[in-house]
Amino acid sequence: MTRDEHRAAIQNLIGMVGAEHQASASEILTNLSNDYDQMLTASETANSNVAKLTQDNESLRATNMKLFLQVGSVPKGEPEKATDNEGNADEDKPLPFTDLFNEKGELI
To answer: CA–CA separation, 94 vs 101, rounded Å?
Structure first.
């Protein structure tokens, strides 16, 4: 039901009420109409916020995907691999299992 249809229904109801109760019925129906307008406004605002957040989320996903795809690529002017004292690359030397834990037994 649109706002105009709702207002027309309220006015129709006010016209149906007898003269002795028209003032109280009019007050009650006006309050209901105002509440309905507030709910519609809140719903419209929430829907626009959802649309904006959805659009922002899609943009963020696209940006994250671009960054994710760049992680595996080699940048221009890549620095040389770090080596240990013997000249071996750090990546080639396996890390002992015990070096993965600190003195408390926690994973580092």
So the answer is: 15
Domain ranges, ordered by start, for the chain: 3-71
Q: Using the Cα atoms of residue 16, residue 21, residue 25 and residue 26 in order, give the sign of their dihedral.
A: positive
Q: What's the full length of the chain, in residues?
A: 108
Q: Could you tell me which residues come within 8 angstroms of residue 107 by beta carbon, excluding any fewer than 6 positions away?
A: 100, 101
Q: Model pTM?
A: 0.49
Judged by phi (left if over 0) then psi (alpha if -120 to 50, else beta), residue 70 lies in: alpha
32-78, pLDDT tens digit by residue? 989 999 999 999 999 999 999 999 999 999 999 888 888 766 566 65
Token representation of residue 23: 């003032």
Q: Please count the CA atoms within 13 angstroms of the CA of 65 that sit on its side-chain side.
A: 6
User: What is the distance of C-alpha 6 from the center of its chain?
Assistant: 32
